[in-house]
Model the fold of this input.
Amino acid sequence: MTLNKNTFIGEYSYTVDTKGRINIPSKFRSSLSKENKNSLVITRGMDKCVWIYPLVIWKSIEDELRKLSSLSSVNRSFIRNTVRHASISKLDKQGRIALNQNIMTFSNITKNALIIGMVNKIEIWDPVFLSNVDDSFNKIDSSQFDDLSDKIIL
Done:
C-alpha cells in the first residue's frame, strides 16, 4: 500500500488465464480512489509492455493530449499512437481485468506476467522480455542517472 491514492509500487508475478484475464494485485486495487469506479485504462506502453492507468489519471493525460496542436504531424502521430490502442476495463469481482488479443500480442504476454507499479501507472511485462530490458538497463551510462538524480530527491 502507498500513502497516496492512485499510486503503485512493487513487483508481482501473475498468470493470464485462457480468457486473457489477469489479476491486479490487491495492494494496487486498494490504492485506487473511489473516483475511478473500479475502472482502468489499458493501452500499449512505449516499451513492449502494457500500461494501465487509473481512470482519473487517464483523464488528465487526455487533457494534456488535447493541448497538442493537431496541425503538427508529430503531434497527430503521437496522439494517434497513444490513444488508438486504449480501452477502458472494469475490474471484475475477482479483481481481474481482460487484456485484448492485440495488447497481448504486442507485449508478447502469453501466460506468465510481471506486474510492476510505476507510481502513476501499472506495467505488465512478459518476464523473459523484461529480463532482456533489464540487461540493457545495466549498460546505461551512470552519468545519465547522475543527471536525472539532480532533478529529483531520493
Q: What stands out?
A: The mean pLDDT is 91. Helices lie at 26-31, 55-66, 73-83, 101-107, 127-137, 142-149. The radius of gyration is 16 Å.
